Amino acid sequence: MTTAKPPIGFLGLGAMGFGMASHLVRSGYRVTAFDVFAEPLERFRALGGLAASSLADSAKDHLFYVVMVATAQQAQEALFGDKGVVKALPQGAVLALCSTVPSSYWVELEKGVREAGRGDLLLLDAPVSGGAGRAKDGTLSIMAGGSEEALKRGKWLLEEMSDVDNEKLYVVPGGLGKGSELKMVHQVLAGVNILAVSEAMGFAAKLGLNLQKTRDAVLRDEAWSWMFENRIGRMLTEDFHPGASALTIILKDVGIITSQARRQGFPTPMSSTAENTYLTGLRLGYGPHDDAGMVRIYYPDPLSKAISSNEDPGQSRKVNLVLKLLKAIHLAGVGEAVAFTKHLDLNFAQYFKLVTTAAGGSKVFETEGEQMYRFLDDSQRNVSAKGESIDNLVQSLDEVMEAASQVRCSLFLGAEALSLFRFAQAKGFGSSGVSNVISLWKRERR
Length: 446
Fold this sequence. Notes:
By secondary structure, the chain is of the alpha/beta class.
């Protein structure tokens, strides 16, 4: 005898939420969704979903409920407002918040649930990663935290939306907020690497390089990142309106990183530089545009007008400058992300597996991430001097910055990375391997 699939309530039909909810419908679930906009509700109904007339209607009689809104503020208003979700859910319901929110928000959410007299609800902290395409396919990476009972009751729902075959449901020990912390440290890499694509290609355009050939060089080099491969197509075709991933989304995520870092007293220079640069894009009106459009900060003219001096004998040297810039930015970003992971006492093996199969991935993380973590974990001063030294990297970055100065190209992340590597030199790590940039975040024992 086949057990009937339970009905699911769903809030938030944006790019990610629509994909997640429509996947559940195609998987045979009766999904009742609500959104403040009529258009996605109509599309959802056309796919076979049910469109709720109100928040309460979407929650009533649903023992399993998914929230996928943009911000913690939106979640708070929807959950606890008049005729909100929390009041309408049935006794013992599982409530999964899949939005990217600060881990500190879970203190406020739990308090609100208790004050509403709904201590019976089982909460899941379950932010997702992977983009709209994987949401639609049900192959998201999900970072889940919660009580043992909540995970036991709701794990099947998260498995339905994640890539279970490739083990992309990460159950994070430590309770509510830990899933959000794991997502946050992943976004350190995502936030830096997204902007690095624009910085590198804007620099390439200013240098007069053939952008298609520069792209190809990056894709086969150690300068590769998942974000570069994902964003470069939209960047070169200038597909920014509306694009696939709005600038405001990554700005929100990076803002969570820097805010939480301030709470923790933890330095995040690369994320802070990225945030300030994204804010410049927001000021210029790029907020709703694809984040690949940040290249206009560096090269304001259409990329199609970029000079391509194919006969220039210095093309190869200039391409190498772009590759060196990307690798240095990735190294500094990886150092920041790995150190923050250690600071939050998250499981690094779990983090490594997440990043190498998700949007924050890069060749640099794969080759240097574990080395950096070992440096933080070991009592020895210098884990390894293999590969390129910090002294050599600083020399290369000096060449990059000089070339950028000559073509009047700002390199915000590159300049911050150079400062960090110079600080590592000042601490006596110049002759050491580049992974020893992590020394800047290592706390000395007293």
